[in-house]
Here is the input.
Amino acid sequence: MTTHTEVPVSGQRGAGPVATRREGQARKLWDKIAVRIFLVAMSAIFLLPLYWMFATSLKSNEELGITPPTLIPESWKWSNYVDAFQAFPFATYFGNSFLITILSVIGSVISNVIVAYGFSCIEWRGRDKVFYLVLATLFIPFPIAIIPTFDLFAWLGWINTYLPLVVPHFLASAFFIFLLRQFLLQVPREHLDAARIDGANEWQILWRVVFPMARPAVAAVAIFTAVGSWNDFLGPLLYLQDETKQTLAIGIQSFRTSHDIQFNLLMAASLMILLPLLILFFAAQKYFIRGITLGSFK
Amino acid sequence: MTATTEATGARRTAPSRPRTAWSPREKSNLTKGLLFISPWIVGTLAFVVFPIIYSVAISLTKYSGMQSPQWLGLGNYTRMFKDPVMWTSIYNTLFYSGWAVPIGLIVALLLALAMNRNVREVAFYRTALYIPSLAPIFALSFIFIVLVNPGTGIANQIISLFGGEQRDFLGEPTTAKLVIVAMAQLGAGNAALIFLAGLNNIPQTLYEAARIDGASAFQSFTRITLPLLTPAILFNLITGISGGLQVFTQAYIMTRGGPNNGTLFYMLYLYRNAFSYANLGYASALAILLFLAGVVLALLVYQVSRRFVNYEISA
Here is the structure.
């Protein structure tokens, strides 16, 4: 503090403490109330779109046309969900999305853990310099890769298969390497040395010693890969052509154009797509929060 | 493995060894290290190095993806600077980023400061504010079409409640962009959690010391909170800008780039050139320009962070 703020004038001192304390408490109380009002209002704003999605999904076609719109559906038309499910091949697309997501998560966890181990638990010359390269690639705008990788996958004959959506996850990603490395650097070196003295090789140390200890970070990688893969829009848009191979993200678009938009069904379908992510979030909330904050500090 | 005990003992004296000498152990560690990072090496060659080289090459040609590329030299680049649609897309993208990123940072910071105020039910707010970040952009786009719909949309209901005139927000170039800016704020929960973690890392003793020195709340904020939050600010700024420059899905779904190219963002224009107009050469030139912008931005961020970012306290 370079400021030389004047200390409260000494004349007040006599009567001061009691009055200021009461004043302070009142201010603290008011503070808490103001903070809560702000947070409740913001939470309401943030949840409103999702609530509106839910409310719309339950309205009948007639109710959708009413102005002003009803805030709570008059009759809860759960059958919209059945209709949405049947309006497009929901089950097939769900299965496709699920398969792609699971394979991506497996690839992402395995590859990123292996690479992060190489950047944190083995001492080799030049390691940290190479790691700067990893960080540098974080800054490269991904669009530059769209056309070249499209051609690359076309040469490999991978268009209209799931390989372009899954295989890249098996080749690690800069952000997840960074995130896991942060965590693995905290694994006590004594554990590694002890295992090495016991004759374990690096591969065994990775899976038997380090992996179990890194579970929270691994969970974060798995979760973020899953969310990204499930919500991916551009990937399936570029690489999947057969209608039967589509994922939910793209499948729901055809639903939108082929029926002159029935918003109640569209919202029902969107919510069914969101539901698995919500379940994942509530089941693994602490890993989400931990993962978000783990990656942000150097 | 007989050498292990010796090696662990010898490691402490290692610095005295000349740097150029490679012990067998060092050689074997190098091999192991490279073997472990080999997935990243392959991935970087395939998805970073190859794309850059290939894009540069293709950007110098006329290439439809069907016939073999025809040499054009710098033709695509000169065309780019005379292309009014490209400038429109750049304007739209900068307009979007210029509003969405600063507003996003401020909203996230306010949320984090509020959540940091020892409110008991903080877990509830954290959850409520984060959930929209999970929702896929296409789903949020659908719901925003409904929310800003002229006539039945809730946004227009609120406007007419205050006596304003109803508007077709997605029907005008500027308001359509602003709708997408507003939609982006739903992702602020993610950045807010990062700020919150940053705030938790600031030792309380600093604030106490400042209070004893007679600092006002505002002074504590500008002299302690903000400087020590710079790593988090930098992180959120980088992710914000790079996301802003790549905005795509919202416009693809909600407005298809319209009205009157009002939401034709750079990425959408690139995508159309590549996959709708089969101008892969031109699209590659656009990608190279974006790449260069990214490099300049990275250098800028690096300079700024060396000067302003304070890594001392944050763990």
